[in-house]
Amino acid sequence: MVLTEAELENLKSSNDNLNQLVKKVNTEKNEIQTKLVETERANTNNNRKELDSKYYSDQQAINTVNDYFNFYERNYVVRNIKVRRKTNASFWVSYEKANSKFSDSDFHYNAETKILEYYSNNTYNLKHSY
Q1: What is the DSSP letter of 120?
Q2: Phi then psi for 31, rounded to 5 degrees?
Q3: Residue 82: how many other CB atoms lie within 10 Å
Q4: 118 lies in the same domain as 63
Q5: Is position 53 within any domain?
Q6: 7 inside domain
Q7: Structural domain for 119, as ranges
Q8: 20 Cβ contact partners less than 8 Å away, ≥ 6 residues apart
Q9: E strand or H helix at 112, and its extent?
Q10: Would you state the pLDDT for residue 43?
Q11: Do residues 93 and 116 make contact, with C-beta atoms less than 8 angstroms apart?
Q12: 83 and 120 share one domain
């Protein structure tokens, strides 16, 4: 198959147009990826919680654990809560926990250790200490 001069010029022009289009798409793709990364960084920084600089007492930590279970996990009973300070606003918390249906028997209590952290935005988190 032999192409005429006009057909060859037409193909070269189409190829140039396609190359320009590919460059434009790649540029837009890079801009979108950059914006996504910036947005993700901003969201991560906004969601980052900083420990509170305020001093929390051991009794406040015990009260917080009791409040947590009284409100968020009402079907469980905790006893023998002990705290050990990590920082001014962070504690290791140890307690025994049982389903409230079986709270009358020592057999059903299991020991747990978690970390209690108070944050500067007036929130706290009781999380596993993996």
Answers
A1: T
A2: -65, -40
A3: 15
A4: yes
A5: no
A6: yes
A7: 58-128
A8: none
A9: strand 110-118
A10: 62
A11: yes
A12: yes
Q: Mean pLDDT of successive 10-residue segments in the chain (130 residues)?
A: 79 84 85 80 65 92 94 92 94 93 88 93 86
Cα of first residue to Cα of last residue in the chain, in angstroms, is 70
Dihedral of CA atoms 68, 74, 79, 81 in degrees, nearest 10, equals -10
Provide the pLDDT for residue 81: 95
Q: Is residue 17 part of a domain?
A: yes
Query: Is 111 found in the same domain as 62?
Result: yes
pTM, to two decimals: 0.61
Is position 10 within any domain? Answer: yes
pLDDT for 10 equals: 82
The answer to whether the Cα torsion of 36, 42, 46, 51 is positive or negative is: positive
Q: In a 3-state reduction of DSSP, which class is residue 86? A: strand
Q: Domain tally for the chain? A: 2
Q: Are residues 111 and 62 in the same domain?
A: yes
**Same domain? 42 vs 97:** no
